[in-house]
Every structure is written in structure tokens, then in C-alpha cells.
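ok so for the tutorial part 2 we go from a plain amino acid sequence to predicted C-alpha cells. step 1 is just haveing the sequence, like this:
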Amino acid sequence: MKAAKFFIFLMTGIALVSGCGKPNEPEIPVTPDISGNYKIVGRVATSGFAQDLVLDNGLLYIAQGEGGLCIVDVSTPTNPEVVSQLTEDVRGYSTRIIQQDSVVYLAAGSFGLTVVNVANPEQPFVTVSNLNMKPAKNLHIFGKYLLSAISEQGVKIAEISYPEQPDIRGSVSTKGYATGITTNADTSLLFVSCGEMGLSMFDITDFQDGYPSTIPAGWCDTPGYAEAVVLDESRSLAFMGCGYAGLQILSYADTSNVHIVGNYAADGYAKDLILDNNKIYLATQKGGLLILDVSVPSKPVLLGTVETSYAQGITSDNNYIYLADEEEGLIVIAKP
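step 2 — the prediction. this is what the C-alpha cells look like for a chain of 336 residues:
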């Protein structure tokens, strides 16, 4: 009898051990815990830890940590399918991604930038690896320039007339640790989220072919750790994901007096965000996805939530939100 019990215990233990593995390997049922009629309609369990993503012409390009680059066809969003994955020559831990035409750029911290030709999505290949824009935290493109937030060193600039071979030029020194970057439409202002130092702004009207004569244009300390920034230029507002301080909303209408006009305390760690039609979509790591109405900046209103394991990056189109979740992979969410 004891032998039989021992055998059952042993087999149960083996079953438990064999079920362990990478968190996003098991098939996950499409049964979300949601509110606000935002519904999960599709998933892909990526082979790496999904960090960030960008959408172009029905394809999602996903930075997936040590797993390099994953390309997913979302032309049918309810049935996303992996097209290809690339790890060869993709060094480091890819955390952020940006795309222009047939080239994507991956930010990989101390391993700098990786440049990938994706003209044929089924056979992507690396053209530059370990580009010396380090430690690469985030990326932004305007015109023929690629900007990389490089932590305590500020922002580094490369000229990309030849997109597959960036030509490193000048840099911008910032307060704090540069983590996120954007520019306004006429590229007269550079906005940098700077970790514990909040938001820094620079006048870049005199850019000098990649060697800018930068003039500090404004600054505002924010609570938490500023990770990302997006703009509503029509209202001169900057929306910032600030870690455990959630969403912070700043007015820069008077650049000599940049100040906070509203905020929303998220349950998780605000990592990334996008703005669409007076709505902020906020990826908050363990807090999942938050959808906020920011029509009245001083009083953001929660419209919906989608619970996920570890939301890191976000993008969207007219009908769907695409979330890079470190543990679950790609999550596709239908808008109401």
C-alpha cells in the first residue's frame, strides 16, 4: 500500500515538474477579466519575453528580450500568426523597437542598437549589430534622424539617410536618466522623459545636420520614475508614464512654467502609453492595461481595464490595441 502511495506521489511530482517552463509557453484561453467592454480577442505566446511592438501594414514587429525579433501577421487580429523570428546576430536584451519603411531598430541596453532589414518579413536579417548608441533605452525617428535615449548620457543622434547603416552624429545632455523621447510635429522641440528628474525639453530648431545646438526650453520634475512621454500638441500637453506614480499630465503651453495639471494613480508600474482620440492607453506591468479618458486633463476618468500578467509595450490601430506582455506574449484587445 505504501509503495502504491509513493508511486502516485512520484508520478504527480513528475507531472508538476514537467509542466514548468517559460511563462508564455502554455496555451492561454481567450477569457479575459475586463471592464469597459475592452475584450481580449487574440493571443500569441512568443518564444521570448515580449517587451515592445510596432505595427505596420498588418504586421507587428515585437522586441522580445533575449529572443530578439518576432514578426506576427495580424491582418486577421483575432487569429494572429507568427511569420518569423530572428535571433542570429541580435545581441543583448531587446527592450524597445521602432520601424521605418523596410528597417526596424532594436534598443538593447548596453548592447546598443540592432538594425534589421525586414523587406522580406519571412527572412529578416541584421545589417548592424551592437551599434554604439549605448546604453540604448528607447528610440524615436524624425525625418532622417534616429534618436536613442541612453540613460545618464542623455540622447544620442544618428543620421539615417541610409536606413540600414546609421551614421552616429551628436548628442544631447539631459538631467537624470533618459528613458523616453519624442518631438513635436515641426521638430522644434525635443521632449525627454528623464527617470527621477521628470521631463526635460530642448529647442532643436538649429539642428546642424545631427549636431544640434540645443537650448534648454523647459523642465518639470514629476513624481515617480518618468519612463515614457507622448504629446497632445493641440492642447500643449505632455502625458507621461511615471512608474509607480502612474499617469502624469503636464502643460507646456508656457515653456518657462511647465507644470502638472492632472494625474491618475495606477495600481501597477506605468511603463508605456499611447494617446488616441482623447484616450490614454497605459501599460502598467502587473497592473495590466488601463484606458483613461483625458478630455478634461485635470480629471482623467478610467474607462476600462484589461488584466494581464506583465504589460510592457503598447500600440494600436482604429479597432484594436496590441499589448506586449512579458509573460503572456502578444495580446490583441478589441476596442468597444
